[in-house]
Each structure stands twice: as C-alpha cells, then as structure tokens.
Amino acid sequence: MIEQQEKKRRGRPRKNTIESVDQNPVQAKRGRGRPRKSETAALTAGGSKIIKTVNDLEYKPVNVWDNPAFKKEKIMAFSEDYKSFMNKAKTEREFIKESVALAKKYKFVDIDELGNKKLKPGDKVYRVVRDKLLLLAVAGKRPAEEGTKIVGAHVDSPRIDIKQNPLYESTDMVFFKTHYYGGVKKYQWLAIPLALHGVIVKADGTRVEVNIGEDENDPVFTITDLLPHLAKDQYEKKLNEAFQGENMNVLLGSEPIEDKEAKDRFKKNILNLLNEKYGIVEEDLVSSELQVVPAFKARDIGIDRSMVGAYGHDDRVCAYTALMAVLETEDPEYTAICYLTDKEEIGSVGNTGAESRALENFIAELCYRTTEGQYTDLLVRKALDRSKMLSADVNAAVDPNYEGTHDKLNAGYLGKGIAIMKYSGSRGKAGASDASAEYLGEIRRLFNENNIPWHITELGAVDKGGGGTIAMMIANLGVDVIDVGVPLLSMHAPYEVASKADIYAAYQGYRVFFGK
Known about the structure:
Layout (H helix, E strand, L loop, with lengths): L24 H4 L43 H17 L3 H14 L3 E2 L13 E6 L3 E6 L9 E7 L4 E12 L2 E9 L12 E8 L5 E6 L9 E2 L8 H4 L3 H4 L7 E4 L11 H14 L9 E7 L4 E3 L5 E4 L2 H15 L7 E7 L16 H13 L6 H10 L1 E4 L3 E2 L21 E4 L3 E2 L10 H13 L4 E4 L8 E2 L3 H5 L4 E6 L1 E3 L6 E4 H15 L2
Parallel strand pairs: 1-2, 4-14, 4-15, 15-21, 16-22
Antiparallel strand pairs: 2-3, 3-14, 5-6, 5-11, 6-10, 7-8, 7-11, 9-10, 12-13, 13-23, 17-21, 18-20, 22-23
Helix pairs in contact: 2-12, 7-12, 8-9
C-alpha cells in the first residue's frame, strides 16, 4: 500500500532495479518525457540529494501509472494470475494448499522431510503448520544466525463461520446458525450470494472437504434481510443494533422428505442430502470448520480495468505478492523467509497465529541447518535480533465519498504504490507497533534506489479508530518490523477494491527486499 514517494533518481539505477529508466520517476508526475535539466535533482552515489530548485525540497508521492519503470502490460498480466489464484483460495486452508502446490513447482521441498541434511545457499524449503500456516525460505549466502529477511502476511479474512451445532428448521425452512469472524459490518453480509467452504472431520477421523457455490452449476446460499416496507423499527435503531449477529442464519433449503408425519421433515431432507454427498451425519458437524464466504469471483473493476474487486484482498493481496516474491528469489545474500499466518483478524492467537512460536521454531531450524559451527539456542537469539521484516498488510485508502476519516497528508491512496505505515494502534497508539526512524529510513532508501513506488500512511485520522497487524508480535521477538502493503477501498467488506498498479508495486517491493 505504498505509494511511490518518488524521490529523484540516484545516479543510474543499479542492475538489480526493476527496469533501467531514462526518466526520473518524480518528474513523471508532470506528464513530460525527459525532465528538463533545470528540474532534475542530481544525486550523489551515496544517495544524498543535491538541491537545485525549491521543488526538490518537497515530498510528493507519485501515481504508479506515471512511473516509467512500471510497464502497463506487466501490471495487467500479474493481476490476471492473482485473480485466478484468489478464485481458488477463499479460506486460509485453501490459500495454504494452493501456495504449497505452487511452491513445489518452484522446487521448494518440505524441510521436515530432509532429516539432518544441511542447507546450502539457494536451497528452497517450506513448512506447513496444521494446514493454516505456511513458512517458505530460500537459504542465503550468509548463515541464518547473521539475520534473515522476512515478509509476513496473514491469509485469514473476515467471514461468517458456521456454529458447531448449527442445523435447525423453522417455518418450513432450514438454516445454519453462524458466528461472524473478525471485524465485519454485519449488514454487508445480508442478501448476497454465499458459498460454503471448509472441512468436516467424521467420527472415524476421515476428513471431508466441502466447497459448494463456486461452480456455475452449484447452488448458493444467503442470509436474508428485511424488506424496506416493514423496516420502520429497524431504521430507527443504531447501525450496530439493527443487525444482530445471532440472527445471521444461512438459508439452506425449503423442501421436506416425503413422510408427512415425520418431525423436522425439512431438516431431515438436508441431512439426507449431506449424507448422500459427503457420508456424514449431523453429529459430524460438531467437528467441522465450515465458513460461508461471498460467491463472487475476482473481477476487473472500472472501464479502464485498472482495479481488482475481490473477497479477501485483506490480506491475501499481500500474502500472494509476498509468496510470488519469495518463489522467484534466487541466491539471496540473507535467507529470505515468507511467513503466511492465520488468525490475524481475531488477534493472531492460537498455534497458527503470529503469537505462536512457528516463526521462531522455523528460524531455529534454519540456524541449525546453515551454521558451520555447533548449534546452540544463542544462534536463534542472534538471528532474531539481526533479522528484518516487512509486515505485509493492507491499509485503508482514502475514499472521497467518506470525508473526514483520514488525515490526508498521512493517508493511503489508491494507485500511489506501497503504503508504508510506521505505526499502527488506535487513539494514543495503543496496541501499536512503532518502527524506528532508522529502519523506516532503511526501507525508504531501498525502495527509492530500486524505483519502487511508495507513500507514507497511517490507519485513519487520530481518534477515528485504528487497528493492528502481526507487526507487534514479531517485533516482540527482537526483529525490526514495519508495515508495508497495499491500500484498499471497502476494507473488510465482502467485496474489496485494490489497484492493479499497487498490487504489482507490492510484489516488486517485496522482491527487492528479499534481494531478488
């Protein structure tokens, strides 16, 4: 979500820049070809700016589409692959499954199948934790004890979960009871087509995968809403009172079994259908993880097709770009780690969330497999203290339809590239991760030197709200962390909007962080 705060070029771009450009990205905002010599801010080899005009003193983020280093055809092509992936990965389990399949194509191997084998520079490994968390690494030229480069994102998204004893019949209709997951505006989930995803573990331990509503020939589901003609009382309530979570029940069916004397004839018909398709009984739903998610496909938004609309951009847009960045990394100086975690939307809790020891354990394994000396726990402590991380999470883009929610000097904007957020939290930075000025300066230099579009942001105006990411959990381990991701419109809604240019900028930013 970073906009390219396009500072003036520093000498010629290095060989590892995305593309050599003749034009200074800062000058591109003026819509000219080459900048006039009098307007160009010359840079020394060390990156110090030589001021030639008053304009050179200002910080002015530039739209990605105006950056000559970013070609439209590459932006569009990358987004096509992203949309295809998103349509197959609407839950955290599905995202991890698809990511592992893709990693294997890039010759990544399961680290837990290597025995005591050491890693050499360029080796590619991964680890899956309970099908909901994934760690991938490319071994660096330096041993892991000298530090690692981590890009971490979460793969869970706000949704509607099915309760453990969910099935009931009322007024000749059948419903699933639900419990919403994460921060949602409940009314947004009413009267839209929904798909049912997840797993059911039967009494004998057999696991059944469920996916209904994505194929064009599948039925879909919905949560009903009240017609406006009868909504007088609803209109008079506060928004958070008008829609009750306990009433967000998913409509499943309305056809009974033939036995007219049977009790719960409509519910029994649904049970019969589930048994025929999946071989389950009602009790098996107790040990299930079923979710209803929007049945929408990821689609282009706008006549110019410049944006992507999809469910789950938060935070799979950053997870996918981080994944692709590490898959394409070859022989980095420092070990590159992509960390895809679960449960962020409810506090990063549990053994698949960022509060778990999964990352620490993985780095310990990398230290063991890359050290030339004897492995000790001290190597892990050193590795964490020397590691650096980009917390790849989305930010809220300014929406001109909702004035007053942002400080526009410090806000995220669609199309301006990666959004760097120094601190998160709410009100007086409560619950924040606050990166140091030194680390922010380091990331700023890295992006500037590689023509990566970025801009500085915060999550809304002071006292308007706020939020957090996985950054604070990783910072607690001693790692330098800063939030760096994609700005979104309609964040946490069933259908979020991201700029294709920002998606591509994030991918390229994560690549240069890893060292390509």
